[in-house]
Amino acid sequence: MKVGGQFCPGVLHAVSAKDGLLIRIRVPGGLIEADQLKAVAGLSRAFADGYLEITSRANLQLRGIQDRDLEPIVERIAMAGLLPSPQHDRVRNIVTSPIAGLDSEEVIDPRPLIHELDQQLREENAFVDLHPKFSFAIYGGTRRFSRSNDDISLEAVGLNAGPYFSFSIGGACSGFVVKRGDAVDCMLAAAKMCIRLAKESNLPVRGKAVVMAPGAMKLIVDALSHLLTPSPVSPPSRLVEEALIGIYPTTQNGRVSIIPSVPLGRLTAEQAIYLADAANEWKSDLRLSPWRGVVLGSIPKGASDNIVGPLHSMGLSCDGRDGFRGIAACAGSSGCEASLADVRGDAVSLAHRLLGHAVPSGWTVNFSGCEKQCAQRHGATAELIAGPLGYTLSIAGSPVASDCSPEFALDAVAALHQNLLSEVAVQ
Fold it and tell me: Which residue among 120, 197, 215, 372 sits deepest, i.e. has the most Cβ atoms within 10 Å of its Cβ?
């Protein structure tokens, strides 16, 4: 195990923070088993700060860990099947839709490919050289819920010859498609090319960096030509869907998905244990989502009221009006030495002001404790960045005020929220 601020966190690569050690647990595709979630919740309650943080690539974090407790935590994570390959601890970012296999708009269920990709990644040491933030994405249709341009991505398109996947690198569409049977081989071969080209050009091992180099896309496509076919259709739309909150129908007759709001992407251990128990009781599919939430998929429709009520009483609302929808915050001054403000506390204050109100389409608010803006989404409706004298407030990417007090900044964002709702009402 390694401990140090120079490492992107993993299970075996703990990072020191103000509130203790931080570890990140890989959950390919966000497809977590109920007993695995329950095991992590138990570890958080016994050894960490009592929370499970969901990341924007649908992995899990535990923080507030003491040095003496790190070894038993690692042992129990491995026992839960969440550390299948120590060498690939940080080769973890495999993304898919959190309603994969339940979505009527899908061309194909990508979950078997997610499992196949993960297995093959872990079988080759060559992939240890991938950057810890390197991400693979497989989408069964055009619905996307992640704002990231993944390093290598496949998006299913329906063609007369059957389902194919449109192939992209770093968000740039290649203009080619690949058959389902070759999908995983294509992604692995592309990743190897990214590693090779990055080393040759002294670039980070990221598809996003490599594809910007002159001629790199052609080199990759040429190397994969035996797997690729020129696309006969336009690239799929890259629109990002709104985060889902509420109860949604599924492709399974009489079953629904229950999707609660998870305030600031943080589950308490007790909330996580309840979700795990509900998933086991109703034989549900449990998934983590890139909007830092959770999905209870394939719940019998008649059981939904029995689940939604307790969720609401535990602080996991399913009506989308708890005030937290679209709000994100970094660890803030309680967890990070670099933070210049209690951004989590201010985010909670804003949510309390918005409680009970509808949410304008596309509403996102980022609270950052310093200019690094760690793990925040780009293009938010409002961004608050803490500085030595107060917040810098930006609206739609344009700075509107600097050195604001928290009260002034929150008043301005709440007023913006009300104005956007008023504009919708007028329309």
Answer: 197
Same domain assignment for residues 376 and 421:
yes
Count the helix, strand and coil residues of the chain and give each as a percent rounded to the nearest 5. 35, 25, 40
End-to-end CA distance of the chain: 57
pTM for the full model? 0.94
| Token reading at 107 | 């061309």
User: By three-state DSSP, how is residue 24 classified?
Assistant: strand
Q: Which of 230, 256, 272 is the last residue of a domain?
A: 230
List, for residues 111-166, the tens digit of each pLDDT value: 999 999 999 999 999 999 899 999 999 999 888 888 788 999 999 998 777 789 99
DSSP 148-192: S--SEEEEEEEETTEEEEEEEETTEEEEEEEEGGGHHHHHHHHHH
Residue 205 has a CB neighbour count (10 Å cut-off) of 21
Q: Which residues pair with 256 in a beta bridge?
A: 249, 299
Q: What are phi and psi of 89, to 5 degrees?
A: -50, -40
Q: Are residues 126 and 214 in the same domain?
A: yes
